[in-house]
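Cont'd.
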Amino acid sequence: MPFAKRARRIFRRARFLLCLATVAAAFGCTRHEPPADLVIINNVEPESLDPAVIVAQADMRIVSGMFEGLTRLEPVEARAVPGLAERWDISPDGKIYTFHLRTNLLWSTGEPITSADVVYSWIRALDPKTACRYVEQLYYLKNAEDFNAGKITNADLVGVSAPDKYTVRAELKAPTAFFIDLCAFQTLAVVPRQTIEKYGDHWLRAKPLPVSGAFELVSWRLNDKIRLKKNPYYWDATNTQSEIIDLLPVGSPTTALNLYERGQADVVWDKELIPSSLVDVLLKRPDFHKFNYLGTYFVRFNVTKKPFDDPRVRQALALAVDKERITKRITRAGEQPAENLVPPGTQNYHSPPGLGHDPDRARKLLAEAGYPGGNGFPRFEYLFNASPIHEKIAVELQQMWRDELGIDMELRQMETQVFWGMQQRLEYQMSKSSWAGDYNDANTFLGMFVTGGGNNETGWSNPRYDELIAAANNELDVAKREKLFQQAETILVHDDAPIIPLYVYLGISYFDTNKVAGIWPNVLDDHPLQSLRKIKPNK
Amino acid sequence: MYFIRRILFAIPLLLVISALAFTLVHLAPGGPFDSERKPASPIVEQNIKAKYHLDEPVWKQYGRYLGDLLHGDFGASLKYQNHSINDIIAQGLPVSMLLGGLAFCIAIGVGIPLGFLAAVRRGGWQDYGGSFAALLAVCVPSFVIAPFLILIFAMKLKWLPVGLWITPWHMVLPSITLGAYFIGKVARILREGMLEAAQSEFVTAARAKGLGETALLLKHALRIALLPVVSYSGPMLADLLTGSFVVENIFQIPGIGVFLVNSSLNLDYTVVVSLSLLYAILLIGLNLAVDFAYTLMDPRVKYE
Amino acid sequence: MSELQHLSPGQRAWRRFQKNRPAMLSAWYLVLLLAVIVGWPLLLKICGGDFARMHGPDELSDAQFAPPSFQHWFGTDLHGRDLFSRVISGAQISLIVGIFGAAVSLVIGVSWGAIAGYAGGRLDATLMRIVDILYSLPTIVFVIVIVTTFGEMLKQSEIVRHSAAAGGVLRIALLFVGLGAVSWLTMARIIRGQVLSLRSRAFVEASRTLGAGTPRILLRHIIPNIFGVAITYTALTLPAIILYESFLSFLALGVQPPMASWGTLIAEGVSQINPIRIYWWLIVFPGAVLVATLLALNFLGDGLRDAWDVKGK
């Protein structure tokens, strides 16, 4: 059978060649790129790099290096300082802001950035078609909310305009004490109009991509890395410390730690990327840093359904939680148990006392509500998204309520995507929640629980609370404003208790201070890429 | 003729598969745009949906999807909005294919000698040891193997990197992890084939002719015993080339396997359907190739 | 020879099986495992009190990460739960999922394959085309969608809403239905092949000419003759399903906490592997038990196959 023999030989040779080709391909695939000055591990792959679309804090850390707003955050304390705007004037009633842009502003392609670009960027974020999720950050502008809801279609009516090439005039609904901070927020960053109009959704992958910030996007490979390069046309380019920065999308704490320990990454800067079972050992090392952070872990009740429609039941459950047990046993980085939603360290604000830990009072309240000793209390579910830390906290809560109140809780773990949907549609009884401050002001926390607020998600509504929040946001006097917020927070965490605060997050990052400079701990956990620098060893 | 008919037959098969995947994924609760922050107004939510035609009935969406597909466009990812699915595949598939190819080489290169040895020394310690090792490779999950390999070779000995996909050194641990299961499979299949072949008339006849036992096994039995391995190669390659979630996830490899799992979890409808389709195309294509190889290797097989 | 002649095929297989040492050893191991799985919870119940509080699989204690000791044979986890108890209760779940999953695949696979093979013609072609289609879908997508979608759908139904503990049971049921639903395909193909060859055998033809109806032929001739094949492949499907469940748990799609399965325990243990400090008992014990059981099941399956003299596919 000469044919068969030949065929066999061909086949065998083909397989040999296939293996050879694969190995050759392995070597061929070695990428010849210059090494980055700095490699940073930055939590999971960003869903987008569009300032108007992004939601996650990790994504904002990248995008804020690429696109800048009228103000920007300085790296040490994360306070808002002049960015694209050199200075600004505020009218006596606090409602009109006049921003004066720098005159030397250029896109990374060399074209000038003008006030029209600012107006375009804000209107784009407000445009219902953009579907910006953080759009409330712009609702402080006059008519902005109506424009976003489609009630008015004329963009000229929105309170932002460009009287001349270098001036932006913003007209607000009410005096907003934190408006300058908001201007540093990514949703309000300045983006390139022509590129967006030309490329649509894929504008971020346009080459060249004009950016207004300190870094240009060199490459963006999903689940691989994002590479940024210094933008020479940035107005403050002389202070940009690194030429090339790589950001790796890593979601697993173990992998992040391994990559760091093996020297494949210089900085890991997300509190979620530290293995919680090792926290006690790691935090003793000099290259692990923890700092206060504006974020609170809490539990939401769905107050529209029995048994949690009764504030006494909610208070009882809150009083029965031993928060210290959670921070000591589970999170273990030295987190503070939280009695309030607004974390300590928030600018111009001190929280009122909360409910505290009092199992006896809890049992009494539960009995008053008609469930003495937990008798007759319906089974209920605690909803959380799949993640080891949430699961562990849920297990502890379950045990506490069973032991202290005699009530039975079922755990319900959901895939993250499904979890958000269920929480928003109130398809839960009790759910894991957390919130991190978008800017350093009590309003970023308390504002979300007003009636019908987009992120209320409890079904809870209290007219008195709404009034207090509105009054606080119209108040220019810092002390009076604090008083109003305090009264509101007392209703939220003490009287009505639609939520149970559990603990205050800590910011955690790890990098060797002898090798990397330019990262300072601050309550917003914000670290501008521009100031990051690898320290060259002395020759 | 037979092969042309099979290729033609694959087209309706692919249509049904894509339709099935499309319906299944749309049945899942929630949607791709649910996220931590709720859109500020219902209008905004509606706008997002309208932008991706999610407000239309499913059959209409499917029709639109097929239309785009005819133009070679898989559409846009709903989760990673700045990337088209063509981009995702173009970036991820070569990486996964390379990883899978390396794992395939390892599976064949180690599995065949292992299975051969076990069969030749039937009943000896090599057989017990080899068979046990092969079974162990099949039984230990890759997400247990990987961390141990990393701990030993990357962290303790510092010979190899922990993860990422840059140089050939980065590819060593992932290919071994991915290949391990298939080494075991191949070795077991080959051993069985060898034992069966040793009893076949073909080999008995050769033995009668007075051929030495080793030469006999190498020349005749192995050839027959390889056939089941070849037919297993089809599905094996399809599995390997479309990536492995566990290996890509643990070693931080930008392949397509991670997308396959994550997109089903994130309800990224278009990506799920496109990747399912890609998998089906690969599977059908490879099975076809395997059958073709069969006709070359074994003159007894003829397709009409 | 004469002795074997008057034995039924089942008895003959049993004789052969007994001579297979690894398979017998595996069988004993599995019997022992089952005894512990059943016995341990009983022991906890009988002893009650402090003993149960210390060793209950869901009982939290202050002994976080205690290494194995006389008190806690396998040590404890983050919540201070006794790992031995958790491995045992994980075994219950994993084996239940495995056994029921294999049963689902057995029932669907055998009936599907038998009908296709026996009916032949157009029905056969249609049924096998469906198998081809399902084969070409990536398994993982299929399973994820089944577990998430149908979980939600059932959750909305009234019965589930009002019955206690339904959530956990439902999740397990979904797992084995989902896993069974993806693993019956090979079974169907093999059974079809068997039936196809049986159908044309002399004794079936003879029975048909003697006027036997379809049900009678199926019951008397076909089913008994594919019994061995079916049992063997079920035994080999079982470890595959257990392994798959552990993979799903790795993705956090497995059973609901605080319930444990081997998969969730191993996923937890694996996350502890790092260069700084390893709580080795968290990975070693669940891992060893899982691997030992999978090995035993595989040996058992191989033994059964040799005993029934089933040819490879």
